[in-house]
Amino acid sequence: MPAPAIRPRRRRLTALVVGAVLALGLAAGPRPDAHAAQATVAVATNFLVPLRALAEEFTARTGHSLRISSGSTGQLYAQITNGAPYDAFLSADAARPLRLEEAGATLPGTRRTYALGRIVLWSADPGRVDAGGAEALGTLGDGKIAIANPEVAPYGVASQETLKRLGFWEPVQDRLVRGINVAQVFQFIGTRNAAMGFIAMSQLSGRPKGGEGSIWIVPADLHGPIRQDMVLLERAEGNEAALAFLDFLAAPDILARIEGFGYSAPTD
Predict the structure, then answer these.
(1) Among 17, 210, 218, 239, which one is least packed by beta carbons within 10 Å?
(2) Whole-model pTM?
């Protein structure tokens, strides 16, 4: 007859063996890179969707990660000047990164253009604006037209300039709805609180065919160029993720992907 102490001992031995196997399995499994770093990126709203997609590729290539915060360019600039802890700033214009550089708040040599923006006149109603800008605006009637606030959003500036060039800026003043950024403008139009409005072309990329409503791509000569610059901020010094991200966005295949989101490639 076996001694009663044998079974507990076997259980202890089994537990030790299982524990050892699990330890070996964990050791052999995926482990975070000891040298991986994280960069905090402030990005203009129009580029949020592309950046989220590109962030996955960035991590896959480098092992580093991005923490993303978005808003209008004016809002993000104000946050940065008030000490917000960002490592990189992806603006929707060239002016604010330049101001930060001139103020000595950036890492030297890191300011560059990452994309050239495009705007479209969009309506959630099929066929509403396909004929062209002036024709579409002429059908506005009592409806509202939405644009991003030109005081804080470069896409709003381009929208304002387009309306002026088409001769509609003054006539639509009592029907104009200003969004904080192009994301809010998109919501105004999508919920039909505005009959039409100007948004970033990138906001329509990837939408199901037939789900776009109707769009008119605004000719680039109707507004100033939407040159979108990025810059690394002082806080990014020594941050491997931030430095790698700067190079990542300049890679030819990544620039091609950015074009696929509805932008033009930088010319310099």
Answers:
(1) 210
(2) 0.79
